Amino acid sequence: MRIEVDCPSGRWLLAAALAAVVACAPGRLPAAEQGEGKFGADWDSWQANTSVSDLASVQRGARNYTSYCLGCHSLKYERWSRLGADLRIPPELLEQDLLPPGAKATDYIESAMPPADAETWFGKAPPDLSLMVRARGKDYIYQLLTTFYVDPTRQTGANNLRLPAIAMPDVLSELGGLKAAVYRTESHPGPGGSSISEQVFDHFEQLVPGRMSLAEYDGFVRDTVNFLDYVSEPTQLERRSLGLWVVLFLLVFTWLAWLVKREYWKDIH
Description:
Layout: H1 11-17, E1 38-39, H2 55-68, E2 75-79, H3 80-86, H4 91-97, E3 108-109, H5 115-122, H6 132-136, H7 138-146, E4 148-150, E5 158-160, H8 173-176, E6 178-189, E7 195-208, H9 214-232, H10 236-265
Antiparallel strand pairs: 1-7, 2-3, 4-5, 6-7
Helix pairs in contact: 2-9, 7-9
């Protein structure tokens, strides 16, 4: 299902009401053996496969972010008004559906969580995510959000393959469910003919299903990553479009310069 919300109509409200029904973006589904509930052996090769040119996906990602991420993570370089203009969200719907109570459209997108409380609860203040995709890459963020697993030894009850000992709890577990990381033992030759054993991740096993199916949750994460990709550089589509014209201009200018050079030097040659 594709929910288009790029015009000033009630379809944005419809998209918000259908938050649990998210289309799976194109790309490989991160599951190798869905029938057995085992998947994730190739997690480090998963790719986001998103594009900020997909406006509907970025719009859904904005909805996802404000619902599940903004409580802890700010976007201090992005204004609500800029987000609304770029994503074609009418001002009245931006204020009604996305702006926190008391916030103005001209405000930067800031979390209401006090840094001191965040350090008390999580051990460190949650990072600002404005430039996280540019710093880490969208595949990294996608893998991070899809490789949480249950770990009773952690204070939050969760750990992560992409970022071990992560301080962030698995805030999306109600959507994607809870899963366990299953390890296998591998032996390697050691010094003096000894054998060294180590635990190597093998696959995930679903423990508790979430509100979304695997495909729906995968689409939810991809949309969220796509939104963060947009936030990391809101003008990237314009930059790429302008870049094509710049290259074309340089080619034409080079050709004209060559014609001028040939005209000036024809008598000498």
